[in-house]
Task: inverse folding
């Protein structure tokens, strides 16, 4: 469940990284985004994401945005 | 970081100026025109402005007598000063003078001290608000609602406080002179500066922009 009462978006970054045996540090180096920001995303504390960030992560993990995020049902 | 060093130096400077303002205020309250205490003069140099005899400044009704010959003569190079040969000079007004107020009444003392400490008090308030603002920069987050309120308060203190303090000081001088034996020599005119009001308005504009910055900061919190 998202960490903000205003949305129900859940990020599955941790699940995808575990499946690939990849760490946040390795992903950070691939996409040139700080570990701190990736951690914010992974722990559902992010409130917004830049399209450039989303594109870089999807390219690095070879996934689509729908694989990375889901909206929990009401 | 280079910025942190600059912020630290600025905080120290603000602190030093705050101490200076407190000393100035204390000097007027405790000194010759206030409570009448003898303040140390540090070897004859009057570092305390409050040590001086109470005085008021005003515009003279007629120019003072000046022992300088400024007559001119026509020369081959045009009009020149007759004494020095330099281009001609002319003394024009307005001419001001200070009147010493001996034996002030208790009311005159109180009103005088209030007039003299009003502007330093405004300055102290401004410095206090600036200290808080600069400290938030040091903490790394200046765009906060608290700083937005500080800027609005700063605008009020400078704009209204500065104008009122300035006008009151001017009125006080006129009032003191009008009660003195030298009153006939002075014009019953004062001068009010609206510069503090203009500066306060500029700070208010900055406060509007800062408030927008606070909203943007909140909007981008949690943005990756």
Result:
């Amino acid at each position: 469940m998202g960490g903000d009462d205003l949305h129900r978006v859940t990020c599955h970054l941790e699940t995808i990284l575990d499946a690939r045996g990849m760490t946040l540090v390795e992903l950070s180096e691939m996409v040139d985004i700080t570990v701190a920001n990736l951690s914010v995303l992974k722990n559902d504390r992010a409130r917004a994401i830049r399209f450039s960030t989303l594109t870089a992560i999807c390219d690095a993990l070879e996934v689509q945005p729908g694989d990375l995020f889901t909206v929990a049902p009401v | 970081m280079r910025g942190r060093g600059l912020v630290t130096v600025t905080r120290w400077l603000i602190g030093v100026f705050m101490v200076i303002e407190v000393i100035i205020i204390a000097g007027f309250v405790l000194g010759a025109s206030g409570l009448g205490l003898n303040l140390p003069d540090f070897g004859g140099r009057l570092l305390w402005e409050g040590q001086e005899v109470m005085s008021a400044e005003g515009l003279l009704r007629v120019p003072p007598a000046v022992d300088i010959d400024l007559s001119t003569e026509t020369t081959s190079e045009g009009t020149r000063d007759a004494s020095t040969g330099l281009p001609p000079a002319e003394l024009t007004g307005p001419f001001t003078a200070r009147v010493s107020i001996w034996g002030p009444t208790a009311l005159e003392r109180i009103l005088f001290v209030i007039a003299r400490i009003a502007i330093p008090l405004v300055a102290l308030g401004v410095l206090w608000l600036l200290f808080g603002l600069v400290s938030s920069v040091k903490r790394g987050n200046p765009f906060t609602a608290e700083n937005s309120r500080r800027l609005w308060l700063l605008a009020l203190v400078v704009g209204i406080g500065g104008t009122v303090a300035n006008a009151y000081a001017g009125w006080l001088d006129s009032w003191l002179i009008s009660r003195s034996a030298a009153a006939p020599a002075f014009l019953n005119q004062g001068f009010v500066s609206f510069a503090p009001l203009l500066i306060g308005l500029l700070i208010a504009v900055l406060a509007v922009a800062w408030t927008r910055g606070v909203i943007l900061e909140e909007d981008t919190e949690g943005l990756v």
